[in-house]
Amino acid sequence: AALAQDAAGDAATIELGAHATDILARVHLPAATICHHTGWSDGLAESLKCGLQAVPPAAPAVLVTLVDKPLVTADHLRQLIQAWRTKPSAAAVAEYAGGIGAPCVLPRGLFTAVSLLSGDRGARALLRALPEVTRVAIPEAEFDVDTPADLAALISRGAGS
Predict the structure, then answer these.
(1) How far apart are CA 32 and CA 100, in angstroms?
(2) How far is Cα of residue 137 from the mean position of the Cα atoms in its chain?
(3) Which terminus of the chain, N or C, has fewer Cβ atoms within 10 Å?
(4) Residues 6 or more apart whose Cβ sits within 8 Å of residue 41
């Protein structure tokens, strides 16, 4: 949350799903809009759509980043934002492990297409199908923490402190 706010400023929105009450009670979140997503168990697409609904109508785009990618930095997010600003009609996407995905900047022109997504898939397939995206090399985005073994790997890298 702090990284997104560092990169995007006070316009940050933090979406919380599972364990939102516990997170809010235990974690100091920066001053930002908090979006409670009660349908988090319906999958990534529903979470993404919920987050897009919280985007102010005047916002030309949204920066999407995930908390399970701890090696992504605020500098990476700023690089994505800058890449999007050079061509605001195209999504700016992280490129890693031979593919593309989050974090990314989605221009408002893609919001309708994102609203049609469903299930436990995010926007990766949509991004791959676009005729043009701005790619930003962020190899650190490949590593995510989904399991206790992933967390142990992160700690053993020295990045977990």
Answers:
(1) 28
(2) 16
(3) C
(4) 17, 18
* Tens digit of each residue's pLDDT (9 = 90 or more) over 129-148: 999 999 999 999 999 998 99
Q: Is the pTM of this model over 0.90?
A: no
**In the numeric block, which tokens belong to residue 97?**
């492990």
Q: Look at residue 26 and tell me whether its pLDDT is greater than 60.
A: yes
**How many Cβ atoms from other residues are within 10 Å of residue 140's Cβ?**
15
Both structure tokens of 106: 């989605």
3-class DSSP string for the chain: CHHHHHHHHHHCEEEECCCHHHHHHHCCCCCCEEEECCCHHHCHHHHHHHHHHCCCCCCCEEEECCCCCCCCCHHHHHHHHHHHHHCCCCEEEEEECCEEEEEEEEEHHHHHHHHCCCCCCCCHHHHHHCCCEEEEECHHHHCCCCCHHHHHHHHHHCCCC
Q: To 5 degrees, how large is the angle CA 117–CA 77–CA 118?
A: 10
Gyration radius of the chain over CA positions: 15
